[in-house]
Amino acid sequence: MYKKILEKYEPKKENLISILHDVQDSNEQNYISDDAVWEISQYLNITPSHIHGVISFYSMFSFKPRGKNVIRLCESPPCFLRGSENILAKLRQLLGIKIGETTEDGLFTLELTACLGVCGNAPVMMINEDVFGDLTEKRVEQIIENIRRRAK
Ligand code: FES
To answer: Which CATH architecture best describes the domain 69-151?
Structure first.
């Protein structure tokens, strides 16, 4: 099932992270299934438990099915000091979900993350690969609305 992705890489352990990114991105539900872990372990000749360890270590990877758009709001101090709590409250209100949950329509998952490395633009969130900084409640509303509109 993941043959096409795996064949893009040499079967070397150092390619594991890149493979995991590709595998997760190829899944509509933004996660890495047990089947995928098994196939990767066979290809790279490493144990599934090693791969599980890597997936658990990095917050961007998930074992659980998630929404099409994974929102990761930074909760580190510079973002917190510039109001990330209000942004979180706004996101929860707009989406009607708590941290770690996925909306019923499968469009959004809400997560928290440590510093995303763009503290100068705090507060910051990522939605899939895109970074959004200098967030205000108004801007968050527009971003969510745009995604909802595009999904129709
Ligand atoms: S603290 Fe939020 S991006 Fe660095």
So the answer is: 3-Layer(aba) Sandwich (3.40)
